[in-house]
Amino acid sequence: EIVLTQSPGTLSLSPGERATLSCRASQTVSSKYIAWYQQKSGQAPRLLIYGASSRATGIPDRFSGSGSGTDFTLTISRLEPEDFAVYYCQQYGSSRGTFGQGTKVEIK
Amino acid sequence: QVQLQESGPGLVKPSQTLSLTCSVTGGSTSNGGYHWSWIRQYPGKGLEWMGSIDHRRSTYYNPSLKSRVTISVHTSENQFSLKLSSVTAADTAVYYCARGIVHYDSSGNDVGGYFDDWGQGTLVTVSS
């Protein structure tokens, strides 16, 4: 089973700053089968990125994904107040649907 | 965009079977290309994929839960369901139903996918 490790656990930033979130896999993730989700308190996760770098429908272009192999990154170019939330990566293609433990982006 | 809504008891006694239903609107469980899935989230913690079913009723389960989980699809009602047997307090969680987008490898094998639409989630507490 592929294990996903996200870092940092918590990211303290101010609105307008750039956020860089990491997701490292214990084995190579084939075909860039990585997705990213945003979850706000009391809500279901929302798909942001799939295929490592493709934005889901309606997702602002300040969100971008990159990476390959075992190292993947979600970047939020300029944090808006509504972006403070928990972010999860997920791999598919092996073991079907394992998630990382999440990174919380909080207001500094 | 499809809408999904979970329903079922919010309280289950230990050793009993947890049963939840997901109603789908704006899309059909009869259509190919999707996994109708259950994902749970322990209080304050991360997400765990439990299992999925496709329109041909092929099922895929998390190996850690496989002996206790059953997922079924009810195409006439456009619903799918989850049964988790022999529950304990460790099964207390928010349960989400979700639609997964199927991916295939170079050999044409279904290898799972990402989840593009989710229900709002329902908290199930296991307690006597």
Describe the structure.
- The complex is a heterodimer of chains A (108) and B (128).
- Chain A has strands spanning 4-7, 10-13, 19-25, 34-39, 46-50, 54-55, 63-68, 71-76, 86-91, 98-99, 103-107.
- Chain A is mainly beta.
- In chain A, the strands form 2 sheets. In chain A, strands 2, 4, 5, 6, 9, 10 and 11 form a 7-stranded mixed β-sheet that branches.
- In chain A, a hairpin with a 6-residue loop joins β9 and β10.
- Chain B is built from no helices and 11 strands.
- In chain B, a hairpin with a 5-residue loop joins β4 and β5 (47-53).
- The chains are: A mainly beta (108), B mainly beta (128).
- Chains A and B meet through β5 and β10 of A and β5, β9 and β10 of B.
Secondary structure class of chain B reads mainly beta
Global mean pLDDT of chain B? 94
Radius of gyration of chain A using CA atoms only:
13 Å
Overall helicity of chain B: under 10%
Main pleated sheet of chain B = 7 strands, mixed
**What fraction strand of chain B?**
over 45%
Question: How many alpha or pi helices of chain A?
Answer: 0
- Name the shape of chain B in a single word: globular
Q: Biggest protein-protein interface? A: A-B, 27 and 28 residues
Order of helices and strands of chain A: EEEEEEEEEEE
The oligomeric state is: heterodimer
**Termini gap of chain B:** 39 Å
How does the major sheet of chain A shape up?
7 strands, mixed
How many strand elements of chain A? 11
Low-confidence parts of chain A, pLDDT < 50 over ≥5 residues?
none
Radius of gyration of chain B from the CA trace? 14 Å
Helix and strand run of chain B: EEEEEEEEEEE
Based on Cα principal axes, name the global outline of chain A: globular
End-to-end separation of chain A: 36 Å
Proportion of residues in extended strands of chain A: over 45%
